[in-house]
Amino acid sequence: MNEALEKLLANPRIWRGQVQAGDQGWQGLASGYPKLDQQLPGGGWPLNALTEILLEHYGTGELQLLMPALAHLSQPRDDAAEAGWIAWVAPPFDPYPPALQQWGVNLSRVLIVRPKRSTEVLWAAEQALSSGTCVAVLLWSSALDDAASRRLQLAAEKGQSWAIAFRSIKALSQPSAAALRIRLSAGDKGTDLGILKSRGGRPAVIHDYAGCRSDRGSGCGSGFSRDSFAGIKSCP
Fold this sequence. Notes:
Blueprint: H1 3-9, H2 34-37, E1 50-55, H3 62-73, E2 85-89, E3 94-95, H4 97-103, E4 110-113, H5 121-130, E5 134-140, H6 146-159, E6 162-168, E7 180-186, E8 191-198, E9 204-206, E10 224-225, E11 233-235
Parallel strand pairs: 1-6, 1-7, 2-4, 2-5, 4-11, 5-6
Antiparallel strand pairs: 3-10, 7-8, 8-9
Helix pairs in contact: 5-6
């Protein structure tokens, strides 16, 4: 095969029919939930990319879903003196430090960003993603559309960061450049997760996605509270 063509096909944004991401050497970030990892190309969250989580309302288990991976990212790598930042841009409630600590998140690497205007949320997230200093950026914005999702995707690639956008279920029919789109909903035995779009993968439904974790029900909580920001750095 032509060398230029091989290089092009190695790009993670290029999907090849009947070829799974794992076969192309993509490595995902383990989610901490075996049921989910089995369905994600590369065995985990897509790195340097945008993930969208669609919800009917906050508190459906969206933060619990991310906690194992965020805890891992908050720890220093072997070749780094300290871990990168985990930025929360315009969260609807205050993160609850004791819950984050119980999940193993290093609070010294958590950065809260509260833009003065809602129109600045996407700009702040894009800047954080492309800075090269954030390992993950969580954002809440009702203004996210297809064009904005493309900018976030490109910023995540540039800064080698993981973007996580929380959106209303009303955005289900809207196009998105996200590498992964999932939907969370309350099920009979726990929280159900639907994979709507997965780069290099297939749609799937996972019932009670957290049911196989040994620490399920340990009281770790959602990670949200209206309590203090003790131990967490905040920026206006």
